[in-house]
């Protein structure tokens, strides 16, 4: 593996230096001029319609591949790759990458690329990947690299568009050498020390290279030795459309030639072959390369092979390809060489897929691929988020005249929307658990999904018990806020959100007890804080009078969630300690994440005791709840940004300002709350009423 | 006795409980923030394990919260006196709980849940105190085929003095000076701060000075250093890793200067002792030879452990570990026993638990030697938190389910019975899963 | 095992009250048996071996710093980075900073760099070539280099606010293939105190292998 990586690095560096000498665009990786002068006649390109065909797309979408250590549908790979490049999971074939742009011209026919209605074509991730693979000439012209700050583009010496805009491969190709040089410089710096522009350049360069490999994926069949092959090794004939050069048959000749011909990098043909084989890998990152050939049932290794690896293995080991690898490569070549004929291509694709799925099934792998593809298509969290929002609007509609028939209808609709949103997101989480065969939470992203779901469930339960509309409001707010965050977070990470676990965490029993419990504790505490936010907002608008029935209802409700939060976070935190004690021999390590959970427990205990001691009354309790909410946000998100400790997963740019904004908003509310509390106290004295503390359920304040 | 009554009323009050809980909350918050610049061990010692808090580094906390993006307040340290730190606060909380939550609380059916939880929290604080005072925690590093019966602390440094015997088979023993006795002897500000350690068996007194938590011996290339000893001087280093982050305590390599002063003629020998060295400092006195070392505190195990074989599984196609496993042999007085240590599944024996802590397959490190690091823990209160957690959980469940039942006007005892029944089922399932 | 805490607190009190720290004496009370598996006692090991300094001179590790120097007593070394080949801090809170950096080629020219430093210290006027040639010279790596001393309010690269009452000492040696910068900044009094150390440090810098 290390040798392979060294070879890869030397190859890409080889290009960088090559390009540094000749500032012209890369000879093979940019589209040839309109009238090709290349020595190798290019095979006729497939029509775009074939790649957008529903059957073809569905066929490829559910193709099982192994990436980052697990088996997933190819659609997942396409989806996160496009998200990483483009910032969203779709792209239009226009000059802006968006549907309202001007359609691009087909480089082969010079006709505009539009659909039957004459509108711009919008591609799904899988369609996009097929276009990259089989029509790289179109893909290179599509503006698909999102750049958040155009000063990074200016630094490359290129013309800039708007501050945040998309650039095509062809736009960037001229600055390839500069881009690579800058990336290798900036990558030396630790991520936290890079400026935002430097981070953009590093990211852009890596996306650029990944795209180059994606678009060149079939180069090893299309033109394995480049467009103008030179100094062919002995025994190899030039590729012609009638008799293409097939590596599955000739790889052994290349290996033999390499053994006799001197240092590999001094062989012109090897440089070309290496470049096209790099495309076959699809990524410079070993974990992300395309692994699509399952090993035989009783193979020792559980690592799948891929076209790139099959070729590189021969060069690094100096061995001939195994019969198995040759057979896989031959099938892969059949697929490409069937083009541009639609019928033949479908047959070849079906054959390849059948072979892959059969081989995977024989190993007992790939059984969840269809389910995962279904959940990607169903997009539960996206639809759930919007249903939560619609439900929230319905809740708001009940406010103007709470007793009218209209309000009754609106409330019923709110139940319908929020209830079905909760059902949708719960289904989504359950499917994720089934695919990964583990409990729901292992990453920060998954805490957002889980807390959103549990928060809305809590709200719905409260609504069933109290029927005052507040529970629905909580359910809608918690659900919408969490899923809004989760979707944004996933887009900013742009990495498969279903990740394998570190060795130390693989114990389903504890993952199923401690982690959900502590997160339910977060959810319950956050719900208590939301109740208090609503309390103060309603007081601000004069809807609530301190001590009246409604106000006491708010207090009881938040008290109930404080209790639930205390139970869940106290037991959850201690369970975490016990897990650590029995698994790694330390009960408590003062790790920031542990401390965050402890702070929630301590705050809740302090609130409950202060309440019983009579130090805080209604408004005071709600103020404290807001502080509790601030603490929850601290331990949920801020702690990860500190960059210390065992749980420091997920450092993200731009998280601090959001946390600060939330804290500031809460501080404003607390300021108002303190003023309310003072006013209540004075009024209480003046009227010499009995203490407002009676709002607490008598049973708790013994 | 009105004074005693007043004192009891104070000790059992809600006011004290609220203040102590709030105090602990603030300490936890600050202690977490300061970890960014001071590292875990230092802030843990300052905020949670000492009696009084000496200062708060407001500037460091400010930067940890990224407020310096708006306003850089620079270095601001708030010196404090008589502000209780975590250790003292927990002790007060214990007394408060005992007086308020156990003795003073009204014993009624409605408070039974609270009473149960309070007792369990007392047990948990006690477990913490016992673990803090009596537990040992360290690492035993073994390469394949190697046997060991000692483990080394992660954090505690010691200076050890050994009289070297001519007979290689003789029983060896060393004198130990714990770092709590010398880690204040830093050169920060002024030098010359030292402390002399004596023992009747030694022909010399040993003075330790110029302690540095992270340092390296450097060659005095041009002879310009007045503090050079045998051509080397001790260079204190910033405790930062390559990314500019705070270096964790485990990686810091301490050093100090030792001066051996002969008891009879007062002659002095000086030496640099530091963790980053391949051997100790040799001191001669007459015909006797002594070896002085600075290193991590070592504890003996009641048995020996031999590492027979290690295995590592990776997630396919990645460098991410799926499982580490070590096959070991436990040797007790010639009796051999084969055991397997793997992630999350320690080997327990004689009050010690042995965990797979780190792993080296010899490939990534380039040493070509397979090695396992075992975390060894001895903790008398090992299982107390589990017991306490179960009791707290049950107590709180009883209390809150009764409260909810009263608020909803249900029968509270039926609610409690239902909840306890659910807990019993859950435990049953958990047991089935564990066994 | 942290037996230390109550005793540390007591010790802390002792230290605070003790008049003469140097005279403090303590009896060693702890002892332990050494395991039979432990490494044999290695005596009379020379310092060079103890401190892993045996082969340092011949080693051709690529990571090795190409420069040799002597860090002044009391200064603390930071790890070298791509930008700073030597990086040191001094002063009670590490507010004094001294580092050496190098750039390939002319790096924009002597005047531009000297004036960049002057701007960092809040100076509004640029030095003319004539004024630069009149600056005092100090040898740095064997060649005379202009020596800039300027007081002012220091605002380093990326800093939000200027630090007042600072002094900057700087040396630039421009060779055709390489420009070397040595820069020291800190509060004025601290810099005055450490100026001899700075000069000694500058004099001690050598290229590895040319000692």
Short description:
Chain B has 435 residues and is α+β, with helices and mostly antiparallel strands.
Molecular structure report:
- The complex is a heterotrimer of chains A (702), B (435) and C (211).
- By secondary structure, chain A is mainly alpha-helical.
- Helix content of chain A is 62%, strand content 3%.
- Chain A has helices at 2-21, 48-52, 54-61, 74-86, 125-134, 136-139, 151-155, 169-172, 176-186, 196-215, 219-222, 247-260, 268-281, 307-317, 323-337, 342-362, 369-378, 380-397, 405-436, 444-466, 470-493, 508-540, 549-584, 592-612, 618-641, 655-687, and strands at residues 64-67, 70-73, 91-92, 122-123, 143-147, 165-168.
- In chain A, strand 1 and strand 2 (70-73) form a beta hairpin.
- Chain A starts with a helix and ends in a 15-residue tail after the last helix.
- In chain B, strands 3, 4, 5, 12, 13, 14, 15, 16, 17 and 18 form a ten-stranded antiparallel beta sheet that branches.
- Chain B is built from eight helices and 18 strands.
- Chain B is of the alpha+beta class and 435 residues long.
- In chain B, strand 14 and strand 15 form a beta hairpin.
- Chain B has helices spanning 2-11, 14-38, 40-47, 58-64, 86-104, 112-134, 384-408, 412-434, and strands at 52-57, 77-84, 136-143, 147-163, 173-178, 194-198, 204-212, 215-219, 232-236, 255-262, 268-274, 281-285, 288-314, 321-332, 335-342, 347-349, 352-360, 371-378.
- Chain B is globular and about 85 Å long.
- The model of chain B has no long low-confidence stretch (mean pLDDT 89).
- Helices cover 32% and strands 36% of the residues of chain B.
- With 211 residues, chain C is α+β, with helices and mostly antiparallel strands.
- Helix content of chain C is 24%, strand content 31%.
- Chain C has a seven-stranded antiparallel beta sheet with strand order 4-5-6-10-9-8-7, with helices on both faces. In chain C, strands 3-11 form a two-stranded antiparallel sheet.
- Chain C is elongated, with a radius of gyration of 24 Å.
- The termini of chain C are far apart.
- The chains are: A mainly alpha (702), B alpha+beta (435), C alpha+beta (211).
- At the A-B interface, helix 23, helix 24, helix 25 and helix 26 of A face helix 2, helix 3, helix 6, strand 14 and strand 17 of B.
Which helices and strands appear, and what pairs or packs with what?
The complex is a heterotrimer of chains A (702), B (435) and C (211).
Chain A: H1 2-21, H2 48-52, H3 54-61, E1 64-67, E2 70-73, H4 74-86, E3 91-92, E4 122-123, H5 125-134, H6 136-139, E5 143-147, H7 151-155, E6 165-168, H8 169-172, H9 176-186, H10 196-215, H11 219-222, H12 247-260, H13 268-281, H14 307-317, H15 323-337, H16 342-362, H17 369-378, H18 380-397, H19 405-436, H20 444-466, H21 470-493, H22 508-540, H23 549-584, H24 592-612, H25 618-641, H26 655-687
Antiparallel strand pairs in A: 1-2, 3-4, 5-6
Chain B: H1 2-11, H2 14-38, H3 40-47, E1 52-57, H4 58-64, E2 77-84, H5 86-104, H6 112-134, E3 136-143, E4 147-163, E5 173-178, E6 194-198, E7 204-212, E8 215-219, E9 232-236, E10 255-262, E11 268-274, E12 281-285, E13 288-314, E14 321-332, E15 335-342, E16 347-349, E17 352-360, E18 371-378, H7 384-408, H8 412-434
Antiparallel strand pairs in B: 1-2, 3-4, 3-18, 4-5, 4-13, 6-7, 7-10, 8-9, 10-11, 12-13, 13-14, 14-15, 16-17, 17-18
Helix pairs in contact in B: 2-3, 2-4, 2-5, 5-6, 6-7, 7-8
Chain C: H1 4-17, E1 25-27, E2 30-33, H2 47-50, E3 67-68, E4 76-77, E5 86-90, E6 96-104, H3 110-120, H4 129-133, E7 137-140, E8 143-154, E9 163-174, E10 178-187, H5 188-204, E11 206-207
Antiparallel strand pairs in C: 3-11, 4-5, 5-6, 6-10, 7-8, 8-9, 9-10
């Amino acid at each position: 593996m290390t040798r392979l990586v060294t070879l890869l690095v030397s190859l890409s560096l080889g290009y960088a230096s090559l390009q540094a000498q000749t500032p012209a665009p890369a000879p093979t990786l940019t589209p040839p001029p309109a009238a090709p002068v290349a020595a190798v006649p290019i095979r006729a390109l497939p029509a775009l319609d074939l790649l957008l065909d529903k059957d073809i797309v569905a066929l490829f979408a559910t193709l099982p591949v192994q990436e980052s250590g697990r088996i997933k549908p190819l659609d997942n790979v396409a989806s996160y790759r496009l998200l990483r490049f483009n910032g969203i999971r779709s792209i239009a074939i226009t000059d802006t990458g968006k549907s309202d742009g001007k359609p691009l011209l087909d480089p082969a026919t010079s006709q505009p690329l539009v659909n039957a209605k004459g509108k711009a074509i919008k591609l799904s991730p899988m369609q996009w990947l097929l276009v990259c693979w089989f029509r790289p000439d179109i893909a290179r012209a599509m503006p698909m690299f999102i750049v958040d700050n155009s000063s990074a583009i200016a630094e490359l010496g290129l013309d800039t568009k708007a501050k945040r805009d998309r650039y095509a491969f062809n736009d960037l190709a001229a600055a390839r050498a500069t881009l690579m040089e800058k990336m290798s410089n900036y990558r030396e710096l630790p991520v936290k020390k890079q400026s935002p522009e430097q981070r953009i350049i590093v990211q852009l360069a890596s996306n650029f290279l990944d795209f180059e490999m994606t678009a060149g994926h079939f180069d090893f069949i299309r033109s394995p030795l480049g467009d103008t092959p030179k100094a062919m090794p002995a025994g190899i004939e030039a590729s012609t459309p009638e008799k293409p050069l097939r590596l599955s048959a000739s790889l052994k000749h290349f290996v033999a030639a390499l053994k006799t011909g001197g240092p590999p990098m001094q062989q012109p043909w090897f440089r070309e072959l290496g470049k096209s084989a790099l495309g076959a890998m699809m990524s410079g990152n070993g974990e992300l390369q395309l692994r699509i050939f399952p090993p035989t049932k009783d193979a020792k290794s559980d690592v799948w092979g891929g076209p790139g690896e099959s070729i590189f293995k021969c060069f690094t080991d100096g061995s001939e390809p195994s019969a198995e690898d040759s057979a896989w490569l031959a099938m892969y070549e059949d697929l490409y060489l069937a083009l541009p004929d639609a019928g033949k291509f479908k047959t070849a694709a079906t054959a390849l897929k059948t072979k892959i799925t059969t081989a995977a099934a024989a190993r007992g792998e790939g059984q969840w691929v269809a389910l995962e593809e279904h959940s990607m298509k169903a997009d539960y969290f996206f639809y759930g988020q919007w249903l939560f929002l619609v439900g929230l609007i319905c809740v708001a509609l009940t406010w103007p005249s709470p007793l009218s028939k209209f309000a009754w209808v609106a409330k019923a609709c709110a139940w319908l929307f929020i209830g079905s949103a909760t059902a949708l997101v719960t289904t989504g989480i359950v499917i994720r658990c089934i695919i990964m065969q583990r409990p729901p939470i292992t990453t920060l992203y998954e805490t957002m999904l889980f807390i959103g779901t549990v928060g809305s469930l809590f709200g719905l339960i409260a609504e069933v018990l109290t029927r005052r509309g507040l529970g629905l409001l909580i359910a809608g707010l918690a659900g919408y806020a969490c899923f809004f965050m989760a979707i944004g977070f996933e887009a900013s990470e742009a990495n498969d959100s279903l990740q394998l676990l570190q060795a130390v965490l693989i114990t389903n029993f504890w993952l199923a007890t401690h982690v959900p419990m502590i997160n339910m504790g977060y959810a319950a505490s956050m719900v208590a804080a939301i109740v208090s936010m609503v309390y103060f907002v309603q007081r601000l608008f004069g809807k609530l009078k301190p001590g009246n029935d409604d106000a006491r209802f708010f207090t009881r409700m938040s008290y109930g969630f404080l209790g639930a939060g205390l139970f869940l976070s106290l037991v959850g935190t201690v369970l975490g300690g016990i897990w650590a004690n029995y698994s790694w021999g330390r009960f408590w390590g003062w790790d920031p994440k542990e401390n965050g959970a402890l702070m929630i427990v301590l705050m809740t205990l302090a609130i409950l005791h202060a309440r019983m001691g009579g130090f805080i009354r209604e408004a005071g309790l709600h103020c404290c709840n807001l502080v509790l909410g601030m603490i929850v946000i601290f331990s949920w998100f801020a702690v990860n940004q500190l960059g210390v400790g065992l749980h420091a997963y997920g450092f993200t740019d731009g998280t601090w300002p959001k946390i600060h904004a939330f804290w500031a908003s809460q501080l404003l509310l607390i300021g108002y709350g303190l003023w309310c509390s003072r006013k209540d106290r004075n009024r209480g004295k003046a009227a010499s009423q009995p203490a407002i503390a009676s709002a607490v359920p008598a049973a708790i304040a013994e | 006795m009105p004074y005693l009554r007043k004192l009891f009323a104070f000790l059992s009050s809600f006011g004290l409980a609220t203040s102590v809980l709030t105090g602990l909350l603030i300490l936890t918050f600050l202690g977490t923030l300061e970890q960014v610049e001071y590292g875990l061990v230092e802030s843990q010692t300052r905020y949670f394990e000492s009696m009084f808090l000496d200062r708060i580094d407001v500037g460091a906390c400010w930067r940890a919260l990224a407020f310096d993006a708006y306003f850089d307040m620079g270095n601001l340290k708030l010196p404090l006196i008589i502000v209780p730190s975590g250790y003292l606060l927990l002790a007060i909380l214990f007394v408060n709980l005992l007086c308020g939550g156990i003795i003073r609380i009204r014993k009624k059916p409605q408070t039974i849940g609270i009473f149960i939880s309070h007792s369990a929290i007392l047990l948990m604080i006690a477990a913490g105190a016992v673990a803090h005072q009596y537990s040992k925690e360290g690492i035993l590093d073994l390469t394949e085929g190697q046997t060991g019966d000692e483990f080394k602390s992660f954090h505690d440094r010691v200076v050890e003095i050994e009289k070297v015997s001519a007979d290689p088979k003789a029983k060896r023993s060393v004198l130990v000076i714990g770092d709590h006795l010398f880690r204040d002897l830093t050169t920060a500000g002024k030098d010359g701060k030292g402390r002399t350690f004596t023992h009747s068996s030694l022909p010399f007194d040993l003075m330790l000075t110029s302690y540095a938590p992270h340092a390296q011996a450097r060659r005095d290339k041009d002879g310009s250093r007045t503090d050079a000893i045998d051509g080397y001087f001790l260079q204190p280093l910033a405790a930062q890793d390559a990314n500019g982050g705070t270096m964790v305590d485990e990686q810091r390599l301490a050093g100090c200067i030792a001066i051996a002063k002969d008891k009879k003629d007062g002659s002095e020998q000086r030496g640099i002792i530091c963790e980053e060295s391949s051997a100790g400092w040799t001191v001669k006195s007459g015909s006797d030879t002594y070896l002085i070392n600075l290193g991590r505190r070592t504890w003996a195990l009641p048995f020996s452990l031999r590492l027979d074989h290690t295995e590592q599984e990776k997630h396919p196609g990645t460098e991410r570990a799926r499982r580490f496993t070590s096959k070991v042999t436990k040797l007790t007085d010639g009796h051999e026993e084969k055991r397997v240590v793997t992630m999350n599944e320690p080997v327990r024996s004689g009050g010690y638990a042995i965990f797979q802590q780190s792993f080296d397959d010899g490939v990534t490190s380039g040493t070509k030697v397979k090695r396992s690091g075992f975390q060894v823990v001895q903790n008398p209160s090992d299982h107390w938190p589990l017991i306490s957690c179960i009791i707290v959980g049950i107590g709180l469940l009883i209390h809150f389910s009764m409260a909810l039942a009263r608020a909803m006007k249900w029968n509270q005892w039926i609610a409690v019975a239902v909840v306890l029944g659910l807990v019993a089922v859950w435990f049953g399932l958990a047991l089935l899963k564990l066994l | 095992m942290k037996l230390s805490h109550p005793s540390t607190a007591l010790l802390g009190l002792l230290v605070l009250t003790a008049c003469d720290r140097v005279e403090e004496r303590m009896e060693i009370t702890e002892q332990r048996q050494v395991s039979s598996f432990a490494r044999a006692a290695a005596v009379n090991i020379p310092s060079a071996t103890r401190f892993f300094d045996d082969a340092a001179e011949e080693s051709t590790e690529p990571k090795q710093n190409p420069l040799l120097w002597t860090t002044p007593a009391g200064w603390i070394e930071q790890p070298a980075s791509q930008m700073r080949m030597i990086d040191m801090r001094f002063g009670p809170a590490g507010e004094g900073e001294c580092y050496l950096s190098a750039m390939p080629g002319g790096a924009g020219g002597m005047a531009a760099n000297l004036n960049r430093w002057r701007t960092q210290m809040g100076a509004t006027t640029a030095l003319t070539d004539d004024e630069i040639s009149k600056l005092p010279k100090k040898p740095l790596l064997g060649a005379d280099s202009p020596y800039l001393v300027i007081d002012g309010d220091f605002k380093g690269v990326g800093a939000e606010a200027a630090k007042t009452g600072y002094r900057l000492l700087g040396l630039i040696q421009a060779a055709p293939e390489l420009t070397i910068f040595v820069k020291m900044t800190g509060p004025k009094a601290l810099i005055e105190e450490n100026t001899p150390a700075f000069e000694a440090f500058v004099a001690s810098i050598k290229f590895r292998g040319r000692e």
